[in-house]
Amino acid sequence: MAEKNSEENLMEKIVSLCKRRGFVFQGSEIYGGLAGTYDWGHFGVALKNNIKNSWWKKFVDGRRDMYGVDAAILMNSKVWEVSGHVAGFSDPLVECEKCKKRFRADQLEDVKKCPECKGKLGEVRQFNMMFATKIGAMEDSASTVYLRPETAQGMFVNFKNTVDAFHPKLPFGMAQIGKAFRNEITPRDFLFRQREFEQMEVEYFIRPADWEKYFDYWKGEMTEWMEEVGIDMGKVHELEVLPEDRAHYSKRTVDFEFDYPFGKKELFGLAYRTDFDLKNHKLEYIDEEMGEKITPHVIEPTFGVDRAILALLLSAYMEDEKDGEVRSYLKFKPNMAPVICAVSPLLKNKPELVEYANNKVYAPLKMEFGRVAWDDNGNIGKRYRRQDEIGTPFCIVIDFDTLMDHAVTVRDRDTGEQTRVKVDELQKYIKDKIN
To answer: For residue 237, what are the contacts with CB-CB under 8 A and spacing of at least 6?
Structure first.
């Protein structure tokens, strides 16, 4: 079978697969949807959890210098005033005088002509992307608060709490996985640009003189994690962001861009935030080794969960052809796959096969690995195709020979090869494959 990753209409294929196989659905779909929002189905949640667990294991549990945080989404509005978001977190907006559609001016080739109806575009104005709401019982006395546009400030405002609780020595970091919200003018490209999304972020506190060393260090750590989860590194490129394009807090930023079907766009980012945030929040650190009070500087590796999943889906999507039939499948690494293995009795109307498959194979594997599926719907060929599209690495079939020799057929997703494995050796066989 000739394996290929087809680029033709790839996004359409990914979106269709995600809905068909229960990964991602349009938000509020039965009421016409809501632009820039998506709901995660059963296998999407599993894939998302695998991504987050892998990230947390590498950047928090696998280190001695990292402290986890889960800050509230709603924060005192002074946080966003001090951070500069209230005054400066905006995108350039233009509106068509004819069709009334709105666009980001920095993404248009011609800021005078509407790309939809060719009508005249109005003047460029700044549009603050934070979602504002009211907190309090009465509208006239309620205070304005914002849905956080980034997770970083939740870590900065807990800097003192973390230092007081754990007394960490520099360098050390704080890590958080959580939701962020941005009122995007034009959400688009499936999971790439949404109004509600999830971030995995580290704020790594260092002495000012060490920033270049740790910037390069974290760039290597980010690359290593991308390789570990299975993102196609041939499609990843580093972009040194120019001063005029950097965020107001950054002295240096490197974007990791990915070759999406809709163009080369940002996947993850690495920023040197200097002491901007801690200084503005008036937070300091007593450096006992240096014998002085300092404001640490910050290196910030930022990962978008949703963009990571989109890049992984695009990296894993494969097609091959045999006897004129095209097979599509997701070539996930086993540790990333939503389902590690699927168990099937050859025939679902044979009680002896079903009982053996359920009690002797499925139940022990489910107890050991968790992410194990039971699949007895349709013939074996249809089950294989379904599990291939989910990305399941191994399909295990219990047949009549199993009742005699206590061995099952394990079919490999990528090669289609089938191997007979003794039931009492099955867990070790799968563990060895995963590792």
So the answer is: 256, 257, 258, 259, 264
